[in-house]
Structures are given as C-alpha cells and as structure tokens.
Amino acid sequence: MKYVSEFRDPQLAQQLAQAMANEVHPDRLYRFMEFCGGHTHALARYGVLDLLPSQVQMIHGPGCPVCVLPIGRIDMAIEVARRPGVILASYGDTLRIPASKGLSLMGARAQGADVRVVYSVDDALQLARTWPDREVVFLAIGFETTTPPTAVAIQTARREGLRNFSVLCNHVLTPAAMHAILDQPEPVALDGLVGPAHVSTIIGSRPYEVFASDYHLPVVIAGFEPLDVMQAVLMLIRQVNEGRAEVENEFTRAVNREGNARAIALTDEVFALRDQFEWRGLGSMPHSALRLGDRYADMDAELRFALSTRVVPDHPRCECGPILRGHKRPQDCVLFGTICTPDQPTGACMVSSEGACAAHYRYGRHQADEVAA
Ligand code: SF4
Fold first, then answer.
1. H-helix segments, 225-290
2. CA-to-CA distance for 129 and 223, rounded, in angstroms?
3. pTM, two decimal places
4. DSSP 205
5. From ligand 1's centre to the CA of 281, what distance in Å?
6. Using a 6 Å cutoff on CB, does residue 323 contact ligand 1?
7. 346 C-beta closer than 6 A to ligand 1
8. Pocket flag, ligand 1, residue 66 (CB < 6 Å)
9. Signed CA dihedral, 235, 51, 13, 204: sign only
C-alpha cells in the first residue's frame, strides 16, 4: 500500500534500530517525551519500543484529548444531557470517560439521557436539522486538529439558521500543555520532545521554536507510522550527541513551518482564548483552551444552559495525573490491568487507544516489561 507500507518496512526498521544502537553513547540516558497520544499508540502497537536501544527512554506526555479532559467537564456534559429536550452528541470514546458518582455519559444514557455517538461534528449538525424541536449539543474535544471542523460546523449552523445547535467546547492548545510540562514545580527530566503529527499540520513547526531556544530542548516533529517515530528518535539522538537544540521536521510530507493558514484563520474567526482552563493532571492553565468567540456566543452551550465550571478530583488511586505529567508509567498504577481495563476503565488514560494505559494494556507492553525485568 503506497504511502503506508514504506513507513512500516521491517528491513528499514532494523536499519534504523542499528543506526540508533551505533550512535547512542553507552553511558548516558536519552529521555524523550512523545507528547502525542498517536505516537504512544504507534510505539506500543508496532513494537517500536522493543527496537530502541536500552539507553533511550520514551516518556508519555499529555497528548491524548480524551485523557486530559477532567471529570468536571464530563459532569457538565452529563448535566446538560439530562436537561429535558436535549440531545447530547459526541465521539464514542468520550462517552466512556469515568465521571462523578460512578457515572459516565454512557451511564447517563442508560438512565434515560439522550446521548448519541457521532463520528464527526457534521453528524451532530445533521441531528439538529432532523430534530428542530430538540436542543442538540455537540461535546467538542481535541487539540488544534479537531478545532477547524468544529468552527466550520458553527459557521454552517449560523448560515442555515439552526437555532437548536450549540457546542460545549473543550478544544485545548498543544503549546500551552508543553509549557506546563516543562514549567511544573517538579519537572520531569527530558532530553527532547517528539512533536505531534496532526496538530503540527495545522499549527506548523514554528510554535515549537520557543522550546528549542528558551529550554534548550531538541524537538523533532514526527508522523504516526512506526518508521516516522524511529527516524524522529534517531534525529533526537543526533541532536543530543551534537549538543544542538533545534526544531526539526521528520514529517515534511504534511508539515511546514507556518501551518495551515486557512485553518488558523478559521479558528481565530470562530474561537477566542479562555483565560483559564482545567486539564486533567496539569491543573488550571491560563490561555490553554478555546471558547466560542463573542460573535458566536449564542451557540456556546455553557452560556445557553448556564453551566458552571467545577473542579472534581480523580479517583484517589488513579495515577492518570502523574502519568500525564510524565512522572509515572501505566504499570506504576495499582489498578492497572486488574480493576482498571479498557472494558471497565477507572481513569481516562484507559479509555481511548491513544491513552498511555490503554496502549500499554492492549499491546502487552506491561507484560513485555515484566519479562524484561
Ligand atoms: S490504570 Fe486506570 S486508574 Fe490507573 S492510571 Fe491508568 S487509567 Fe488511571
């Protein structure tokens, strides 16, 4: 399959593994954070971790949109879904995120709330057209990649005069989370960052330059295929060995420095920066998320339904917070694989395939680690 098989070629993978083994210094550790959940998934699914030299340690970052959504935001969605006449629409994974009182959106649906799974925001718009006497609320989540489609839907609703469509907006911003990781009171030791793939197609490589200049941290933007990630790790090893800290782009087939100007303009037109936003594991961060801009405030579900933000602690034994901050690994959680599984998740990191716990569980990373130990 052209454009896929080339990036999964076992022989090339072996060559890259050999190059890494040749170039790492045997007496030092190379600690790289894969910020994006898609990379976490690729590392586990394709066995890339087994091909890395023992000196290279991959640390999961907070780049899974389902994982970083805190309980309080799910509680808000449940609250609005329970209002008479409301249809709440969102992606399947979102429905399974554990919320307060043992509930989730799926649980709320079992109790009678009208919660629907959609595959795109367009499906939610179609619900609004089909049910003109109901209020359709789209629970929007995701980083910069999913924001432009939400913006298009909002503009379409306005153009069509759909007054029964609104958005509960949870779109968050990647560079803000990177700053939070690097500025946390007990920072995790890092030698480099694997920059996100899809997000970078929208925002370009330029927003990462501050991490190279101000934190002296190498950044390599990588695609999602296994050889993409391996090539990016090799590029990071070379930067570390040469004492360089630059933004390099392994994913040149899709990412440039400036990003997608149309998508950025569309986002700026429809959304505005929030002063503060709560992230799971990272706490409240200024200017780290988006709300609907003033021109579209009538389609902001938080305003339309007078929803208030709340802060709700995670399950006391769930380690999602430290995992999202890079301090712990999934197998450090006592609930991992026993009480907490993809079928019965206790924490958000076990819900989506991009979550660190789900990726490790599904692809047996925890078993591989036990065998190695
Ligand atoms: S195993 Fe479950 S409870 Fe533990 S950190 Fe992961 S998601 Fe949270």
1. 226-242, 261-270
2. 37
3. 0.93
4. S
5. 12
6. yes
7. yes
8. no
9. negative
Question: Letter for the amino acid at 42?
Answer: A
| Residue 8 identity (one-letter amino acid) | R
User: DSSP readout, 126-152?
Assistant: HHHHH-TTSEEEEEEEESTTTHHHHHH
pLDDT of the chain, 373 residues: tens digit per residue:
466 777 778 889 999 999 999 999 999 999 999 988 889 988 988 889 999 999 999 999 998 999 999 999 999 999 999 999 999 999 999 999 999 999 999 999 999 999 999 999 999 999 999 999 999 999 999 999 999 999 999 999 999 999 999 999 999 999 999 999 999 988 899 999 999 999 999 999 999 999 999 999 999 999 989 999 999 999 999 999 999 999 999 999 999 999 999 999 999 999 999 999 999 989 999 999 999 999 999 999 999 999 998 899 888 999 999 999 999 999 999 999 999 999 999 999 999 988 999 999 988 755 555 544 4
Looking at beta carbons, which pairs linking 14-19 to residues 24 or more positions away fall under 8 Å?
14/51, 16/51, 16/227, 16/230, 16/231, 16/234, 17/51, 17/52, 17/53, 17/230, 19/234
